[in-house]
Specification:
This protein folds into 3 domains: about 150 residues, Immunoglobulin-like (Sandwich), CATH 2.60.40; about 160 residues, Sandwich (Immunoglobulin-like), CATH 2.60.40; about 190 residues, Cupredoxins -  blue copper proteins (Immunoglobulin-like, Sandwich). It contains 6 helices and 40 strands.
Length: about 600
Amino acid sequence: MTETTIQPVGKEEAVAELTPFLDALRIPPVLRPGREEAREGIEIELSATWVRLHSQLPPTRVWTYGGHMPGPTIDVRRGRRLRVTWTNRLTGSYPVTAVEAVPVPGAPSPSDVPGRSGAEPLAAVAALPPWTVTHVHGARTGGGNDGWTENAVSPGDSQLAEYPNDHRAVAWWYHDHAMDITRWNVYTGLAGMYLIRDEEEDALRLPSGEQEIPLVIQDKNLDQDEDGRLTGRLLHKTVVVDHETDGRNVAAAFSGPFTLVNGVIWPHLDVTARWYRFRLLNASNARIFELRLVDEETGEPVRGAMWQIGTDGGLLPRPVPLDEPLSVAPAERMDLLVDFGRLRGRRLRLVNVAAGVPHPQVMQFRVGAEEEHDRFVLPDVISGSFQRITHETAPKHGHRLIAITPPGTAGGGHPGMWEMHPVEEGGDFTPAEGLIQLKGKDGTVRTYRRGAKAFDDALGFMVEHDAWEQWSFLNLGGPTHPMHIHLIDFQVLGRDLYPAGAGSSFDTVLGGTRAPLEYAGSAPVSGGDAGWKDTIQVPAGQMVNVIGRFHGAKGRFMYHCHLLEHEDMGMMRPFTVMPAEVMAFHHMSGGDHHDGHMH
């Protein structure tokens, strides 16, 4: 049966044959290459293997880095360059069954139900070859080492990459990024964590060793046999719905009923009554988690015990209390501290309280009853080197505008991503496809024209190396999109509100605005979003303004939505970073650098 509420201890029900919290959390192995080893390089093989996702399941065939799901945690020191040979040793048939399911009115969403729901497997997915390319998400490395999406390799070939690791202490992660099939390749198991350490982090004397644990969270679905029993085989089931304007079918991004942590479905972790550090990563295809720690016996939220000290780009300036649910979108990382010393002898659950989740359990913590001697004290300041950037303190910078369009725009079935360029003022405005007008906070009306909307359109964004730029992501309607920019960290300057959806002047049939979209105020920037980020949630009706410096590397990179189904279906675009002196000789105008103005 489905858990619809947080249940006290003893009242949980087995879901589709699986008992929650039966299996212990697995900890991925750690790779700590020494100075000489890092210089000479390490090899990580991609290989097929069998794992037990739950002790009540038969083994599941997956693709792995180094034979583990998730892959080994790479742990390096700041400034220690690491060379990695990612060698494709994958063999056998594709390990994912993919289907498209049509919802039945009044029934639960097919994505929340184990098995195929009567849908036939997609033969084209079953026939996919082992074609992969690894991207270290967050890494500041040259374009040739970034894992360009089309530079994937086949079995027997290797991808060679160098990572300078010249970055403050941080949690990155690595995953497959192959063009058009990222959603299935990552789903096979191709993901792992990548940690950088530095002296500022060392000085904090944070919980370490057995008290520092990665938590790689994913949601999955599993296939069933003809008798309804789970086979353990990975099932990627997307829900197909009718297009609301012209009847065309639209495939929604994937979500599944089973939550895995470190490759185990609903695990438990035995902890002692002391501080722990958790390096949390949402490696799901598309599910946004709203995580909360609750007492298992009472079902009440636990307050005063969990703190966030870091995010995608490193340590926060000060700890942020997590007494409210923590929102974590795909690709976001959260550096968390939990004081189990105040929770001795209790059983706790980490649960997903997002609306519509069929099975909220994520994992269980079993806290030891013995009192522990723990010298760690939560400091008032985490990163003294952190400097917050605001509109007032931002360095001189250029501006970009990216519009995210809802499904159905100009006859398109899926959400879109448009690069917008300013139009010179003057003359009357005639609504047309690809034109957007905005009335900003200062009351000025500005017009923008679409320059590109597909990955293979002409290059639009050329960035001068070392330049600061503000990128503004405007969501005109539809789901929340976690937007990721390769190469850089950025800070959130603000979240401006604009009308979206049915009450908006953006006409999806036309594919443009009929009248200016007017600024309607601002939303607060959360404590966690006030740090350095590389992935940011952009809800409908918000323009999220981020600023970052494009330095440390040059070449061709990408930005995209990190809902993997959206990325594969067109919400991804290239950009280049070049020396300004070279750009002056560029043979085509291509796209304007320091493009336009947005206040």
